[in-house]
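Office hours follow-up: a student asked to see two folded examples consecutively, so here they are.
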Amino acid sequence: MAQRVYRDFPKVGHYDTWKIDVLQKLVEQNTGKLLYPGWTCVSDYLETDESFVTVPLHTSDLHDKLLNRVQQLQEAGDYNSKLSRDFKFICNSWGVPLPFLPVMRRVEYRLFSQLMLNDLQKFDENRMSQLWIAHVNGQGIFPKLPVQLKKYHQHWKRNRRIQDAMVT
């Protein structure tokens, strides 16, 4: 049977790879060079104390306004948000009652147009995200990050130009 030969891989003749790991580390400590450059030590992939978490992307001002809005809805008895497990995870990670989602529902499209045409003379994503919070209901309208509104604004402008061209 032919033996497979891998470039830069040691011919160890046994399956105790931890011995190769120890030898590799000792040679590297003493000489500064690797004995087997193609060898990957399993101990290089040990568990660490690092954690990878989801961090909030919104400002503290937007956070406070969202908390106040949800409290208003709860006091009025209008708050009945049913969230998926993914959204609940995001909410727990960010410490908010509702997730910041992109503009993606028909009622949100209408609200965006209404805010653009009635309340804003010039588009300002930060100001619009503040205005948007007053309309959040947790069922059809969810809070938006400024960057999400800015992205949708580009789409809205293109559609608006098309509508304006069709009217004239």
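And the second, which I mentioned at the end of office hours:
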Amino acid sequence: MEARLNFLAGPTAGKAVKYVMSVGKALKESPLPAAAQELVALRVSQINGCAACVDMHTKEAAAAGETPVRLNLVAAWREATVFTEAERAALRLAEQGTRIADGADGVGDEVWASAAEHYDEDELAALVFLIAFMNMVNRLNIITRQPAGGYEAGHVH
């Protein structure tokens, strides 16, 4: 499969990608735990069906020491016993923040309160931005049919 669009080829896309990547860098440097970041990025990408992002975040998480068991259970995290309560709260927020159209009230107060029990305001801000960021990147990749499978950990474009 070949991508419909090369984001680095044109002046407008190239300029926009630089800003998008700077947001990603700021989030990586945030106080939100790295494991939570990768789990959330992976779950949002699974929900949206973004193969390129599932490929990237699975490999990045594994390279950072995430276990195969936890990676394999992200899609079924509710029934899995391998995630902390904080990670579960982040995954719950990620799901509701991604499936906004499925819920009449968007993100529920109970889900927000659960996340707020585990993360401080700066971490919550990073979590919210990460969820929104991943949804945007997923859509960019899906619309342009970015291929998956060849990503190498540590080679973020």
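Two things to take away from it. The radius of gyration is 15 Å. Helices lie at 11-28, 34-48, 51-63, 68-73, 85-98, 109-118, 121-143.
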